[in-house]
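User: My notes are a mess, but here's the protein and pyridoxal-5'-phosphate's SMILES. Can you give me a structure?
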Amino acid sequence: MNQSLIDVAIPGVQGLHPYVPGKPVEELQRELGLTQVVKLASNENPLGMSPLGMAAAKEVLEGLNYYPDDLGFRLKARLAEQHGVDPGQITLGAGSSDVLEMVAHSFLQPGRNAVYAAHSFAMYAIYTQASGAEAHVAPAMAADDPQMPYGHDLDAMADQIDAHTRVVFIANPNNPTGTWLEKEALKRFIDAVPPEVVIVLDEAYTEYVTDSDFPNGLAWVDDHPNLLVTRTFSKIYGLAGLRIGYGVSSAELAGVINRVRAPFNANSVALAAAEAALDDVHFIEKSQAVNAAGLQQLCAGFEALGLATLPSAGNFVCVDFGRPGTPLFEALLRAGVIVRPVANYGLPNHLRITVGTAEENQFCLRAVEQVLAQ
Ligand SMILES: *Cc1c(COP(=O)(O)O)cnc(C)c1O
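Assistant: No problem, the inputs look usable. Here's the predicted complex:
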């Protein structure tokens, strides 16, 4: 057989551009022999993991010869209590990306389409493409929009919905832009989506938002059987390495997507750590405070360097360098700072920078200043 295996893969996979993760610290140290490296590339929590989560994780290590609890009984019970829903409305995933994939797997195939906004989270495109469904990418708000440059344009998204649409992906706040949607506008949009279209409202960063007016998708799940709100322990809870996230929806929708869930997708350590991390109010509040201060520090620092930033409600900021970002990204690597190029998100002149500790932010700002002066 002379054909290469990619030629016999399904068409969706043939055209796939795999997700590009942030460069690991050790890799950069190995490659460039750097001692001090700051990673601000993957929106991880700079304070580490929740200490309560860490203690719970350690306790589980003795029992790793056993398979995890496939029902995730305790974590679901704790989440149900926190969010005022029934445990049967919760779907656990190996990260919330896993839950997004379950939706694509359950509802998308050739001849159907998924709607999402330009410059939104990369996994929407990847799961849509892998399923063989068509991507209906809605143009974003204009680059010079006074409120939300590059943000989701809900009218444009509504225009992309047709009889073959089965999934709409919305990120609020969005990654990599950091932009967000207001409550009334988002509610109106969700109300107008036909009931046979699954709405995925991805709230990966919502715990960073302290404004009480910010939309909480969980409030709408009761009235919308087609709405799935996803959350993650990877961001504010600091458990990215454990891979644990969840969706909240109607029990009906949870029942559908659970049919394609891989058995034991949420591992024992992750289940225990997540359950404990939910109670770690001190860690969450500290993470919010460090993030708010750091976001301000970075935005002020970039402004002082004459660089514009997109409005952000997350733990990262998208910076407009007014020239191609990839060479700057590479120069920053040599200076020991790992950030994220976002050319593959249609933002070739921007870099996305995660909010770190005050020292990490300062290190990053200084490196940017040096690199710009080169
Ligand atoms: C980080 C992120 C996720 C979650 O990733 P997991 O680690 O798989 O939970 C989901 N959506 C967006 C928009 C993100 O930025």
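Residues 43, 95-97, 121, 171, 175, 202, 204, 232, 234-235, 240, 245 surround pyridoxal-5'-phosphate (CB under 6 Å).
User: Great, I'll file this with my notes.
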